[in-house]
């Protein structure tokens, strides 16, 4: 498939995104490592350990746009390794069955396979089926490198707010805006040329990776995204250590959190 991201109408974005991830599913983990030089692992570690899942007892989590289960695995490992918690659970939700399949295959090699701690569900983050994902159910909602691919960010946030328990935490890890002009220009050069090139070499798929780079550019800045989280009914700010959001690597990535009020 060949497409110019900027000319894609919003309504077809979902099927486009589905195709992108269909085409990258099997090479996704490899590409992630290659394009971020392994740094996405560190960011994911920071993201999950900052949430301290299991610290206050078992938590019921939903990891949306969970893909191959990187965040889910870290949540369960963190809870078990730090708090001997084998009761916490994660429901991985993704719009793309191929990504979920890779995740399922990967969890087969872990101790969580065939336990109530992990499950995989195909669904759209913007419209989680209400019968399956009921109101006021989860203690923790995570979404990592997924929300920028969704057509409507407010729709995703509204659903996150609906399924979380009052007092539950929304946590998002996403590429964001680099604040330092020098770093920003280096990063632009790297991502616009290197990532599509790596996509070609490692995955034989330049267009999909080109799309992923461009979707990062269109994502709202840290304060704008924070405002959207607040508008969805979450409290942000004082209750978190680093303020309303925490930049990673000068804003290449960023963690936003909110508490359902
Ligand atoms: N969270 C995983 C990680 O950090 O490794 C996967 C991130 S991957 C870049 C983005 C994921 O978002 C893909 O698996 C894709 O299928 C999923 N996705 C895109 N749009 C979605 C939507 N509307 N609802 C649910 N998942 C979606």
UniProtKB/TrEMBL annotation:
Which EC numbers characterise this protein's activity in its record?
2.1.1.201
- Matching CDD domains: AdoMet_MTases
> Which InterPro entries does the UniProt entry name for this protein?
SAM-dependent_MTases_sf (IPR029063), UbiE/COQ5_MeTrFase (IPR004033), UbiE/COQ5_MeTrFase_CS (IPR023576)
The UniProt entry's GO CC annotations, sorted and at most eight, read:
extrinsic component of mitochondrial inner membrane
Binding-site positions, S-adenosyl-L-methionine: 68, 94, 124-125
PROSITE patterns reported for this sequence: SAM_MT_UBIE (PS51608), UBIE_2 (PS01184)
Q: According to its UniProt record, which protein family does this protein belong to?
A: Belongs to the class I-like SAM-binding methyltransferase superfamily. MenG/UbiE family.
Name-wise, this protein is 2-methoxy-6-polyprenyl-1,4-benzoquinol methylase, mitochondrial
Q: What's the source species' lineage?
A: Eukaryota, Fungi, Dikarya, Basidiomycota, Agaricomycotina
């Amino acid at each position: 498939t060949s497409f110019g991201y900027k000319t894609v109408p919003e309504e077809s974005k979902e099927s486009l995104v589905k195709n992108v991830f269909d085409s990258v599913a099997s090479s996704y983990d490899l590409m992630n490592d290659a394009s971020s030089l392994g740094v996405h692992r560190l960011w994911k570690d920071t993201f999950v350990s900052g949430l301290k899942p299991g610290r206050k007892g078992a938590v019921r989590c939903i990891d949306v746009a969970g893909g191959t289960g990187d965040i889910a695995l870290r949540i369960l490992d963190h809870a078990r390794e730090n708090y001997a918690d084998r009761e916490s659970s994660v429901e991985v939700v993704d719009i793309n069955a191929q990504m979920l399949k890779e995740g399922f295959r990967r969890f087969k090699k872990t101790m969580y396979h065939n336990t109530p701690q992990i499950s995989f569900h195909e669904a759209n983050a913007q419209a989680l089926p209400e019968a399956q994902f009921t109101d006021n159910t989860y203690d923790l909602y995570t979404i990592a490198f997924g929300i920028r691919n969704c057509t409507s960010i407010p729709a995703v946030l509204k659903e996150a707010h609906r399924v979380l328990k009052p007092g539950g935490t929304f946590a998002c890890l996403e590429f964001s805006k680099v604040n330092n002009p020098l770093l920003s220009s280096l990063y632009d050069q790297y991502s616009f040329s290197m990532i599509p090139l790596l996509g070609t070499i490692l995955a034989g798929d330049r267009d999909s990776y080109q799309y992923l780079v461009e979707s990062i550019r269109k994502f709202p800045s840290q304060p704008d995204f924070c405002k959207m989280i607040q508008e969805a009914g979450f409290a942000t700010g004082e209750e978190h250590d680093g303020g309303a959001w925490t930049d990673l690597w000068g804003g290449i990535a960023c963690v936003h959190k909110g508490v359902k009020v």
